[in-house]
Amino acid sequence: MFVFEPVLLAVLVASTCVTAKTHTWNFTTGFVNANPDGVYERDDVIGLNGQWPLPVLEADKGDRIELYLTNGFEDYNTSLHFHGLFQNGTNSMDGPELITQCPIPPGETMLYNFTVDQVGAYWYHSHTAGQYGDGMRAAFIVHDGSDDDDFPYEYDEEFTFTISEWYHESSVDLIPNFMSRFNPTGAEPIPQNFLFNDTRNFTWNVEPSKTYKVNLINVGGFVSQYLWMEDHTFKVVQVDGVYTQPNETDMIYITVAQRYTVLIETKDDTSRNYALMQRVDDTMLDVIPKDLELNGTNYIVYNESAGLPEEYKVESLDIFLDDFWLEPLEAQEAYPDPDYQIVVDVAMDNLDDGVNYAFFNNLTYVAPKVPVLGTVFSAGEDAINPLVYGSNTNSFVLEKDEVIEIVLNNLDTGKHPFHLHGHVFQTVVRGPDYGEESTPVPYNASEAHDIPENPMRRDTVYVNPQSYFVIRFKADNPGVWFFHCHIEWHLDQGLALVLIEDPLSIQSQQNLDDNWKRMCEVNNMPYVGNAAANTENFLDLTDENVQVKNLPAGFTARGIVALVFSCIAGILGCVAIGLYGLAATDDNPVKLSQDLGIDEEFIQDETSSQLSHNGSKDTTEKTATELLN
Ligand code: C2O
To answer: Where is this chain compositionally biased, Basic and acidic residues type (predicted)?
Structure first.
C-alpha cells in the first residue's frame, strides 16, 4: 500500500501532463492587402504574420496558451483580448488597454500566457481603437476534451463560420470623423458590406446524412445579423461557451461578439443545393444607402454539378430564437436578491466640444492614466476604495462572492449588445422593444417580472431600444473586468464601466510580470498610482483624465446642427449680397463656397452625415436645401 500509492500518484500526474498541451503561437501584426467582399481592395487590413484572414486558433480544455504578440505597426499601439475567457487568476492577460495592461508599443512583444478552463466558441481581437474592425479578429475554439470527446451531443464534423460587417475605410480615418463636432448626432459609419467567413457568397460543402457542429460567431463591431437556411434547421446547443438544452429553430439572431454553436443535420439526398442566408439588422443603421446589400446568400452544397440556389426569402424576421428563454444544460437557479446592485442609465449626448458621447449615468468613460489593474496592485488597502480609480472611469468595487446585479436602462432608441469580461451572467429580465416613438421605460423592480427558473448565462446580451435588462452574477473571479457596449463606435464614445472585483485577493493571488511592466515603461505610461498616477496620496486625483465639459444648458445635437448651418448660411448670405453687388446674379453655392474658401464638398458631406438617430433627417435636409438654394 505504501509502495503503490506514490506510484499511482505519479501515474496520475503523468497522465494530466500528457493531456494538457501548451500551444505556442508567435504573431506579428501588420497591414496586408485584402479584398474580402470582392468590391474593393484595402491595403490596410490588419493581418498576423502577413496573413489575413487570421488563423482560427484551437485548443482543448485545460491547455496552456503562450501567444507572443509582436506589434509590427510603425505608428500604432495594439493589444489582444480573448473574448469570453474568464482569465481566472490571470487578469493581466485579459487585454483591454488601460484596464488590465498598457498597450503594446511598436516593436515590442507581449506574451499572453494562460490556461484555458472553459469550452466552446470564443474569439480573439485587438482591444485597441477600432483595430478589430480592420480585421484583427478571428475565432478561438476550445474543445471539450481531446477530440471534443466530452461534448455532450453527437456529431460527425465541426465547422466554424464568422459573420461581420466590412468597411472600405480604416478605423484610423473612421474614428476621428465619427468622434467629431461635424457629426453631432453620433451617426455611426455605414458599412459597405457584410461578410460570411470573411467573404461574400461563401460555399459550404457538405455530405448527406451527417450531423455537423457549427460555431457561428459575429466578429463584427457594429451590427447584429439574422441567419437562416433553406429547408434546414439549427439546433442550438451552446451559447457563449455555455451548453444549453437543445433548441431547434429556423432563425438565429447574433449580435456582435455573441456565439451560437448549433447542430445541423444534412439531408440524405444530394440532388440539389440550398441557400444559407444572412441579413443585417438594418434597424441599427442610421441610413441605408441604396446600393447596400442587406441580404447575403451563401451556399450549402451537396452536389457541385447541381447548380447554386437562389436567394431564399422569409416573410418575417420575427421568427428568430429568443435567447432569453434558452436554458443552460447545467441548471442554475436565478440568484436571489443581490448583495450589491448597480443601476446604470445609458444615454447619448453632446459635450461642449460638440462631439456626441455615450454615458452611463451622465459619465462617459475616460481612460485613466494608470491601467486600473496597476492601481489595484499599487494602492494597498486603498484598493477597496472606488475613488482611487478616478471619477471618470465609472468604476465599481465588488466584494468577494457577492451576488451582483446590473440593472441597465437604455434611454437610447438603439439596440446595444453589452459584454462583461471575466464572467458569464444570468440574464434575469429583458424588457420589450419600445421602439422609437415612446419615451424610454426604465426597469421597475416592483412590477412583476417573469424571471426564468434556469436563466440563460452568457457573456454578451443586447438591450432593446428604450428598454432595460437585469443581469446577475457572483463575484467569484478576482480581477478588473470591463463592461461595455461591444459596438466599437459606442465604446469609442465611452459606453463602458469598470468592475474591480475583490481587489485584495487580486493583490494576494496574482502578480504583474516584467514583460507586462515593460509595455508601460516603453510607452512612458505609469503603472503605479491612482487614476491620476498619484503614488503619494491615492485619494488625491488632481490632474486625472476627465470628460469634456457639459454643453451650456439648452444645447442639443439639433441645436448644434442648426447653429453650424445658420452660421454658414449667415456668412454665405452676406457674401451673396456682396457678390450680388459685384457681379451678375450668381447664387451658385459652389461659387460662393469657392469665394469663401470653404470646401464645397465639406458642405455636402456634412449635410449627408447629419441623418440622425431620431428622425431629424427632415430638418437637416431642409436646412441643407435652404443652404444650397
Ligand atoms: Cu470582445 Cu471588451 O471585448
So the answer is: 615-629
Q: Which atom of ligand 1 is nearest to the CA of 84?
A: 1
Gyration radius from the chain CA atoms: 26
Are 261 and 238 in contact, with CB atoms under 8 Å apart? Answer: yes
Lowest mean pLDDT among 15-19, 141-145, 392-396: 15-19
- Phi and psi torsions of 566, nearest 5°: -70, -30
C-beta neighbour count of 288 within 10 angstroms: 12
What's the confidence (pLDDT) of residue 590? 39
**C-beta of 84 in contact with ligand 1 (< 6 A):** no
Cα 93 to middle of ligand 1, angstroms: 13
Quote the CA–CA distance of 185 and 377 in Å, as a whole number.
Answer: 40
pLDDT digits (tens, 9 = 90+) for 279-303: 999 999 999 999 999 999 999 999 9
Atom of ligand 1 nearest to the CA of 95: 2
Q: What is the distance between the alpha carbons of residues 110 and 106, in angstroms, rounded to a whole number?
A: 11
The per-residue pLDDT for range 354-370, each reduced to its tens digit, is: 999 999 999 999 999 99
pTM for the model stands at 0.87
Mean pLDDT for the chain overall = 90
Query: What's the 506 CA to ligand 1 centre distance in angstroms?
Result: 21
Percent of the chain with pLDDT over 90: 83
Domain ranges of the chain: 17-144, 152-327, 338-521
Looking at CATH, the fold of the domain delimited by 17-144 is given as Immunoglobulin-like (2.60.40)
CATH superfamily of 152-327: Cupredoxins -  blue copper proteins (2.60.40.420)
Any atom of ligand 1 within 6 Å of the Cβ of 277? no
* Ligand 1 atom closest to residue 482's alpha carbon, by position in its atom list: 2
Q: Is the CB of 430 under 6 A from ligand 1?
A: no
- Alpha-carbon distance 489 to 221, whole Å? 8
Calpha distance 140→217 (Å, rounded): 10
pLDDT of 382 over the 70 cut: yes
The residue whose C-alpha atom lies closest to atom 3 belonging to ligand 1 is 83
Phi and psi of 230, rounded to 5°?
-80, 120
Looking at residue 309, what DSSP letter applies?
A: P
| CATH entry, 338-521, from 3.30.200.20, 3.90.700.10, 2.60.40.420, 3.40.50.300 | 2.60.40.420
Equal CATH topology for 152-327 and 338-521: yes
